[in-house]
What we know:
This protein is an alpha+beta fold. It has helices at residues 13-17, 57-69, 181-188, 244-251, 268-280, 305-317, 327-334, 351-357, 371-380; strands at 6-10, 26-34, 46-55, 72-82, 88-104, 112-119, 138-141, 147-158, 172-179, 196-202, 208-222, 230-236, 294-298, 344-349, 383-387. α4 (244-251) packs across α5 (268-280) and α5 (268-280) runs parallel beside α6.
Amino acid sequence: MGTPKYALLSYDQEAEFEGQEDYEETWALCQDAADLFADPPPPVRGTYELLGCAPEGELRTALARARADGSAPLGSLTLEILTKSGTAVGEWYLEDVRVLDDRPCARDLTLRDVTVEAREPDYNAYDYPRCPPLSPGYRLSGAEGDPFGTCRDLARVREAGEGGDEPLEPPLRLLGCSPRGALRAALDAGEEDLGHAKVLRIDSSGRPVQAAAEGELRAWIPSARGPGLVDLTLDLWSERPPLAAREVWELWGEGRPADPNRWARCGPEGREFWLRTALANHVYGSPDKVSGNTYHLDGRHITDNPGFFCALGEAVNGPGGYFGWGLDALNDCLGGRWGAAPPLTLIWHDAHVARTCLGLTPHVDHRPPTFDELLTFLTGQGVEVRLT
C-alpha cells in the first residue's frame, strides 16, 4: 500500500459541539482523494433600485461619475431602517456596490431613483429590510459611517442567484482505503447506512496536518489500488478545501517544515491557506519566549500581505510557525501565549521589497494594510522595528 495521505474518522456532531474528546475512531487510511479541492464560486451579485433618493457625499459623486462613464464604484452601503419619527431600528448592508444609472423619481421629481449592482453579505440579519408603517424610508451611509443621503424605498430588480440552476457538485471519493473498526464491520455486514465521517490530511508519519472535509458515507467499491482496499464515496456538507490547499499540503507532506520560506513557492491564495495550516498546527498556550528578545524577519519574499504574516510567523515561531494572519489576529498574538509578547525587537531584512509591493488596492472596502500601516501598528503595540 502506498503512503496514505488522508485519514477517515468517525464523526459525531453533537459530541464535537459539546467539546468531548477522544470520541473519534479511525475508520480508514486512504492513499488519495478525488474531487476534494474546489475554489468557492464568485459572490453572487444582484441589482437593486434605491427609490426616492436624496443623494449626498460619495453617492452623489458616484452618480455624476456613472453618468459620464456608464457606471461607478461606491464600496459598501448601509441602509438604516427608520421609524416614522426618524429613529434607526435596524441596519441592512450591501457590499461591492456599483452605481449603474439614475433617473427622476416618478413620485417626486426633486428626488432620484438609483440603480445599483451589489452583493448581499452573509451577516445581514434578515433577507430584506422592511420598514415599519409610516416610515420615511432609509438613511444611507458608507463603510465609515459617512452620510450618503436618504431613500424612501428599496426594490430588488433581480434576486441574487436568479437566472439558472446551480451546478451539482460531485461527491468526494477516497481512493485506496484500508477500512478498520466499525467501518470494516459495517462493510462486512453489508450495511447501507455507513454513517457520518471526517476527513483529515495527514503527513507521511500519519500525524494529522489539517481537517479536510466532513460528510456522509454513501457507497463503496473494491479499489483497483490493491487487494482488500476500497474506494469510498462521501456526500459533503462542509466546504471543500481551496485548490491552493493541494500545494500547501504537499509542502507539509513530510510534517511541519524544517526549513524556512517554503511558503514562498506559493501564490497569494496558497500563502493564505499556508497561514490556516500553520494556525491548525500551532500549540496554543505555551510560555512566551523571554521578554525583550530580538527576532529577524526575512523580507525577501514579502510581496503581498499573506507573505508578511507567513514570514512573521516563522520569525517568531520557526519554520511553519504562526503569529497572526491579519491585524486583529496579530493583536491577539501580541497579547501573549502565542510565542512572544512585547517588548520585543523585530529586525526587518530586505524591507524595500515590502515597501514596494504592499500598496493600496483601489475601490476595495476591506483592503490589506500598507507597509507604513504595518509599521505604525507594530510600533503602537510595543514592537521596535528596525529596517535593513
